[in-house]
Amino acid sequence: MPSPLEDELGDILEKARDGKNWSPKDLAAATGISLHAIQKMERYEQVPADAEIGVLAKALDLDAAALRAIAHEAWSPAPPQDDPALDLICLNVYMGLYPVKCYLIRCPETGESAVVDTGASPDAIIQKAKEQKLKPAKILLTHAHPDHAGGLDKLDRAFACPAFIHENELRPRGSRDLRFVEDGDVLEVGNMKVEVVFTPGHTAGGVSYRIHDTIFSGDCIFAGSMGRANSSWPGLYRSITQRLFTYPDATRLHPGHGPATTVGEEKRHNPFFRGKV
Protein backbone atom coordinates (compact mmCIF):
# COMPACT_ATOMS: atom_id res chain seq x y z
CA MET A 1 0.00 0.00 0.00
CA PRO A 2 1.30 3.51 -0.77
CA SER A 3 2.00 5.78 2.17
CA PRO A 4 -0.59 8.48 2.92
CA LEU A 5 -0.37 11.73 0.99
CA GLU A 6 1.91 14.28 2.61
CA ASP A 7 -0.64 17.08 2.23
CA GLU A 8 -4.31 17.14 3.13
CA LEU A 9 -6.91 19.66 1.98
CA GLY A 10 -5.87 22.18 4.64
CA ASP A 11 -2.22 22.11 3.54
CA ILE A 12 -3.17 22.64 -0.09
CA LEU A 13 -5.44 25.57 0.74
CA GLU A 14 -2.70 27.21 2.79
CA LYS A 15 -0.04 26.72 0.09
CA ALA A 16 -2.37 28.01 -2.62
CA ARG A 17 -3.12 31.07 -0.47
CA ASP A 18 0.60 31.66 -0.16
CA GLY A 19 0.84 31.73 -3.93
CA LYS A 20 -1.55 34.67 -3.97
CA ASN A 21 -0.11 36.32 -0.84
CA TRP A 22 -3.53 35.92 0.77
CA SER A 23 -4.34 35.56 4.43
CA PRO A 24 -7.22 33.33 5.57
CA LYS A 25 -9.27 36.52 5.84
CA ASP A 26 -8.52 37.33 2.19
CA LEU A 27 -9.67 33.85 1.14
CA ALA A 28 -12.87 34.27 3.15
CA ALA A 29 -13.57 37.58 1.39
CA ALA A 30 -12.90 36.06 -2.05
CA THR A 31 -15.15 33.05 -1.51
CA GLY A 32 -17.89 34.16 0.84
CA ILE A 33 -16.98 31.27 3.14
CA SER A 34 -16.62 32.28 6.77
CA LEU A 35 -13.16 32.88 8.19
CA HIS A 36 -13.98 30.45 11.00
CA ALA A 37 -14.79 27.69 8.47
CA ILE A 38 -11.60 28.28 6.51
CA GLN A 39 -9.51 28.17 9.66
CA LYS A 40 -11.15 24.86 10.61
CA MET A 41 -10.39 23.47 7.14
CA GLU A 42 -6.75 24.45 7.42
CA ARG A 43 -6.56 22.81 10.86
CA TYR A 44 -7.94 19.55 9.36
CA GLU A 45 -11.09 19.90 11.47
CA GLN A 46 -13.60 20.30 8.65
CA VAL A 47 -14.05 18.91 5.15
CA PRO A 48 -16.31 21.29 3.24
CA ALA A 49 -19.18 20.31 0.97
CA ASP A 50 -18.31 19.70 -2.67
CA ALA A 51 -19.89 23.00 -3.70
CA GLU A 52 -17.63 24.89 -1.29
CA ILE A 53 -14.59 22.97 -2.54
CA GLY A 54 -15.48 24.18 -6.02
CA VAL A 55 -15.67 27.77 -4.83
CA LEU A 56 -12.33 27.48 -3.05
CA ALA A 57 -10.70 25.88 -6.07
CA LYS A 58 -11.88 28.64 -8.39
CA ALA A 59 -10.65 31.39 -6.08
CA LEU A 60 -7.25 29.71 -5.64
CA ASP A 61 -6.69 28.61 -9.26
CA LEU A 62 -6.83 24.94 -8.31
CA ASP A 63 -8.52 22.13 -10.19
CA ALA A 64 -11.82 21.43 -8.42
CA ALA A 65 -12.13 17.73 -9.32
CA ALA A 66 -8.57 16.97 -8.20
CA LEU A 67 -9.07 18.96 -4.99
CA ARG A 68 -12.31 17.10 -4.19
CA ALA A 69 -10.59 13.75 -4.69
CA ILE A 70 -7.88 14.65 -2.18
CA ALA A 71 -10.37 16.18 0.28
CA HIS A 72 -12.36 12.91 0.28
CA GLU A 73 -9.24 10.69 0.30
CA ALA A 74 -10.37 9.25 -3.02
CA TRP A 75 -7.02 9.41 -4.83
CA SER A 76 -3.49 8.26 -4.27
CA PRO A 77 -0.88 7.73 -6.97
CA ALA A 78 -0.41 4.31 -8.48
CA PRO A 79 2.92 3.02 -7.13
CA PRO A 80 5.52 3.34 -9.90
CA GLN A 81 7.17 0.17 -11.15
CA ASP A 82 10.82 -0.28 -10.30
CA ASP A 83 13.34 1.39 -12.58
CA PRO A 84 15.72 -1.33 -13.88
CA ALA A 85 18.53 1.23 -14.10
CA LEU A 86 19.02 1.31 -10.32
CA ASP A 87 18.43 -0.62 -7.14
CA LEU A 88 16.46 1.50 -4.69
CA ILE A 89 15.66 1.20 -1.00
CA CYS A 90 13.31 3.82 0.45
CA LEU A 91 13.53 4.45 4.19
CA ASN A 92 11.39 6.49 6.56
CA VAL A 93 13.92 8.26 8.76
CA TYR A 94 12.11 10.19 11.47
CA MET A 95 12.64 13.68 12.81
CA GLY A 96 10.81 13.23 16.06
CA LEU A 97 7.51 11.74 14.93
CA TYR A 98 7.71 13.25 11.45
CA PRO A 99 8.69 10.78 8.70
CA VAL A 100 11.19 11.83 6.05
CA LYS A 101 11.97 9.81 2.93
CA CYS A 102 15.63 8.94 2.51
CA TYR A 103 16.99 6.67 -0.17
CA LEU A 104 19.78 4.16 -0.61
CA ILE A 105 20.59 3.76 -4.29
CA ARG A 106 22.88 1.13 -5.79
CA CYS A 107 24.30 0.59 -9.25
CA PRO A 108 23.09 -2.87 -10.32
CA GLU A 109 26.21 -3.41 -12.45
CA THR A 110 28.98 -2.40 -10.04
CA GLY A 111 27.35 -2.45 -6.60
CA GLU A 112 28.52 1.09 -5.81
CA SER A 113 25.95 2.97 -3.73
CA ALA A 114 24.93 6.42 -2.52
CA VAL A 115 22.51 8.02 -0.07
CA VAL A 116 19.94 10.64 -1.08
CA ASP A 117 19.20 12.87 1.95
CA THR A 118 19.99 11.90 5.51
CA GLY A 119 17.04 12.60 7.76
CA ALA A 120 17.72 14.02 11.19
CA SER A 121 18.24 10.57 12.72
CA PRO A 122 20.00 8.45 10.10
CA ASP A 123 20.63 5.30 12.13
CA ALA A 124 18.18 3.39 9.93
CA ILE A 125 20.28 4.22 6.87
CA ILE A 126 23.48 3.05 8.56
CA GLN A 127 21.81 -0.17 9.72
CA LYS A 128 20.29 -0.89 6.31
CA ALA A 129 23.61 -0.26 4.58
CA LYS A 130 25.27 -2.76 6.93
CA GLU A 131 22.54 -5.33 6.25
CA GLN A 132 22.99 -4.89 2.51
CA LYS A 133 26.81 -4.88 2.82
CA LEU A 134 26.97 -1.42 1.28
CA LYS A 135 29.34 1.44 1.95
CA PRO A 136 27.89 4.49 0.17
CA ALA A 137 30.39 6.48 -1.88
CA LYS A 138 28.37 9.70 -1.99
CA ILE A 139 25.73 11.59 0.00
CA LEU A 140 23.42 13.57 -2.28
CA LEU A 141 21.52 16.35 -0.53
CA THR A 142 18.44 17.90 -2.13
CA HIS A 143 18.55 20.79 0.35
CA ALA A 144 19.86 21.69 3.78
CA HIS A 145 16.76 21.62 6.02
CA PRO A 146 17.40 19.63 9.21
CA ASP A 147 14.93 16.89 8.30
CA HIS A 148 16.95 16.23 5.13
CA ALA A 149 20.52 17.01 6.15
CA GLY A 150 20.51 16.89 9.93
CA GLY A 151 22.05 13.42 10.02
CA LEU A 152 25.03 14.36 7.89
CA ASP A 153 27.57 14.12 10.70
CA LYS A 154 26.61 10.51 11.53
CA LEU A 155 26.72 9.44 7.91
CA ASP A 156 30.03 11.20 7.41
CA ARG A 157 31.54 9.26 10.31
CA ALA A 158 29.99 5.98 9.17
CA PHE A 159 30.86 6.17 5.48
CA ALA A 160 33.71 8.74 5.17
CA CYS A 161 32.45 9.88 1.76
CA PRO A 162 31.83 13.29 0.14
CA ALA A 163 28.48 15.06 0.39
CA PHE A 164 27.04 17.13 -2.44
CA ILE A 165 24.74 20.17 -2.31
CA HIS A 166 23.98 23.16 -4.53
CA GLU A 167 26.27 26.12 -4.05
CA ASN A 168 23.27 28.44 -3.36
CA GLU A 169 22.11 26.35 -0.41
CA LEU A 170 22.94 26.97 3.23
CA ARG A 171 25.94 24.95 4.35
CA PRO A 172 24.90 21.97 6.44
CA ARG A 173 27.17 20.91 9.26
CA GLY A 174 28.77 17.53 9.59
CA SER A 175 30.62 16.81 6.36
CA ARG A 176 34.40 16.81 6.21
CA ASP A 177 34.20 16.79 2.39
CA LEU A 178 31.33 19.02 1.26
CA ARG A 179 31.23 19.60 -2.49
CA PHE A 180 29.04 21.91 -4.55
CA VAL A 181 27.00 21.13 -7.63
CA GLU A 182 25.32 23.21 -10.31
CA ASP A 183 22.44 22.59 -12.67
CA GLY A 184 23.37 20.06 -15.33
CA ASP A 185 26.29 18.53 -13.45
CA VAL A 186 26.55 14.77 -13.82
CA LEU A 187 27.82 12.67 -10.93
CA GLU A 188 28.65 8.99 -11.15
CA VAL A 189 27.60 6.19 -8.81
CA GLY A 190 29.18 3.14 -10.35
CA ASN A 191 27.93 3.13 -13.94
CA MET A 192 24.89 5.24 -13.08
CA LYS A 193 24.83 8.83 -14.30
CA VAL A 194 23.22 11.16 -11.76
CA GLU A 195 22.09 14.45 -13.30
CA VAL A 196 21.69 17.50 -11.06
CA VAL A 197 18.43 19.34 -11.82
CA PHE A 198 18.20 22.78 -10.21
CA THR A 199 14.72 23.05 -8.67
CA PRO A 200 14.71 26.06 -6.32
CA GLY A 201 11.72 27.58 -4.59
CA HIS A 202 11.36 25.46 -1.49
CA THR A 203 14.86 26.71 -0.76
CA ALA A 204 17.19 28.91 -2.76
CA GLY A 205 19.51 26.04 -3.65
CA GLY A 206 17.13 23.10 -3.88
CA VAL A 207 18.02 20.41 -6.39
CA SER A 208 16.61 17.15 -7.66
CA TYR A 209 18.69 14.20 -8.81
CA ARG A 210 17.77 12.25 -11.95
CA ILE A 211 18.95 8.75 -12.75
CA HIS A 212 17.52 7.33 -15.98
CA ASP A 213 13.71 7.55 -15.53
CA THR A 214 13.78 8.27 -11.79
CA ILE A 215 13.96 11.67 -10.05
CA PHE A 216 14.59 12.25 -6.36
CA SER A 217 12.79 15.55 -5.92
CA GLY A 218 13.24 16.46 -2.25
CA ASP A 219 10.57 18.90 -1.11
CA CYS A 220 9.90 20.42 -4.53
CA ILE A 221 6.76 18.40 -5.29
CA PHE A 222 4.63 15.95 -3.32
CA ALA A 223 2.03 13.55 -4.63
CA GLY A 224 -1.07 15.71 -5.03
CA SER A 225 0.61 18.91 -3.86
CA MET A 226 3.79 20.98 -3.93
CA GLY A 227 6.39 21.85 -1.33
CA ARG A 228 6.26 24.87 0.91
CA ALA A 229 7.72 27.88 -0.92
CA ASN A 230 10.12 29.13 1.73
CA SER A 231 12.26 30.84 -0.91
CA SER A 232 9.95 31.68 -3.83
CA TRP A 233 6.44 30.51 -4.70
CA PRO A 234 6.71 31.44 -8.42
CA GLY A 235 10.16 29.89 -8.49
CA LEU A 236 8.91 26.64 -7.01
CA TYR A 237 6.00 26.53 -9.47
CA ARG A 238 8.43 27.03 -12.36
CA SER A 239 10.74 24.35 -11.02
CA ILE A 240 7.87 21.88 -11.21
CA THR A 241 6.24 22.94 -14.47
CA GLN A 242 9.32 23.95 -16.45
CA ARG A 243 11.81 21.41 -15.10
CA LEU A 244 10.24 18.29 -13.60
CA PHE A 245 7.25 18.21 -15.92
CA THR A 246 9.43 18.38 -19.03
CA TYR A 247 10.37 14.73 -18.48
CA PRO A 248 8.17 11.92 -19.88
CA ASP A 249 4.96 11.06 -18.05
CA ALA A 250 6.37 7.71 -16.95
CA THR A 251 9.23 9.40 -15.06
CA ARG A 252 9.18 8.34 -11.43
CA LEU A 253 9.17 11.04 -8.75
CA HIS A 254 10.49 10.09 -5.32
CA PRO A 255 9.81 13.03 -2.97
CA GLY A 256 11.08 13.80 0.49
CA HIS A 257 7.69 13.09 2.06
CA GLY A 258 4.67 11.03 1.09
CA PRO A 259 4.35 8.35 -1.59
CA ALA A 260 6.24 8.02 -4.84
CA THR A 261 4.40 9.18 -7.94
CA THR A 262 5.07 9.92 -11.61
CA VAL A 263 5.08 13.01 -13.79
CA GLY A 264 1.94 11.77 -15.53
CA GLU A 265 0.07 11.11 -12.29
CA GLU A 266 0.77 14.65 -11.12
CA LYS A 267 -0.27 16.23 -14.41
CA ARG A 268 -3.57 14.34 -14.20
CA HIS A 269 -4.35 14.50 -10.47
CA ASN A 270 -2.47 17.31 -8.74
CA PRO A 271 -4.88 20.23 -8.11
CA PHE A 272 -2.12 22.81 -8.61
CA PHE A 273 -1.31 21.57 -12.12
CA ARG A 274 -4.18 19.53 -13.58
CA GLY A 275 -5.34 21.13 -16.82
CA LYS A 276 -2.47 23.64 -16.87
CA VAL A 277 0.45 21.56 -18.19
How are the SSEs ordered, and which strands pair?
Layout: H1 9-20, H2 24-31, H3 35-42, H4 50-60, H5 64-71, E1 87-95, E2 98-106, E3 113-116, H6 123-131, E4 138-140, H7 146-149, H8 152-159, E5 163-166, E6 178-181, E7 186-189, E8 192-198, E9 207-211, E10 214-218, E11 221-222, E12 225-226, H9 233-243, E13 252-255, E14 261-262, H10 263-269
Parallel strand pairs: 3-4, 4-5, 5-6, 10-13
Antiparallel strand pairs: 1-2, 2-3, 7-8, 8-9, 9-10, 11-12, 13-14
Helix pairs in contact: 4-5
Please compute the radius of gyration using only Cα atoms. 19 Å
Question: Helix share of residues?
Answer: 25-40%
State the name of the first-level CATH class of the largest domain: Alpha Beta
Largest sheet: 6 strands, mixed
Structural class: alpha/beta
Task: Give the number of domains.
Answer: 2
What is the CA–CA distance across the termini?
Answer: 28 Å
Q: How many individual helices?
A: 10
CATH architectural grouping of the largest domain: 4-Layer Sandwich
CATH fold name of the largest domain, please?
Answer: Metallo-beta-lactamase, Chain A
Give unreliable regions as ranges: none
Shape: elongated
